[in-house]
Write a structure and sequence with these properties.
The chain is mainly alpha-helical and 106 residues long. The chain has four helices and no strands.
Length: 106
């Protein structure tokens, strides 16, 4: 077998392996994207806020003294116009650190 034909066979094998790898990667990516949790579309409500709210609520359940998380959840409730939950978050920030700088911006 000549060097030229060996090179062609090697290039063909590299092409086949690369094609298979690309196909598997594409399937894996589409599978991953399909699993992303989707929130129902609610007229007038930013679904990103709902996703962020869920994240921070879960995070704060495990880390209740993380003041930045309480600040973020306060902003989210303010944007969702959930006054009661907004004030609960403000009270938690004041409890953790009454001199918290960002508290003034709320």
């Amino acid at each position: 077998m000549s060097e030229d034909s060996k090179t062609k066979i090697n290039l063909f094998l590299v092409f086949v392996v690369a094609s298979i790898f690309f196909a598997i990667s594409s399937l894996n990516l589409s599978s991953y994207l399909a699993k992303e949790e989707s929130f129902p579309v609610v007229e007038g409500i930013n679904t990103d806020l709902l996703r962020d709210k869920e994240f921070w609520e879960n995070f704060l359940a495990k880390n209740p003294t993380y003041i930045e998380g309480w600040y973020e959840i306060a902003l989210i409730h303010k944007n969702l116009e959930d006054t009661k939950s907004y004030y609960v978050a403000i009270e938690k920030i004041q409890e953790l650190n009454p001199n918290y700088e960002k508290l003034r911006s709320l």
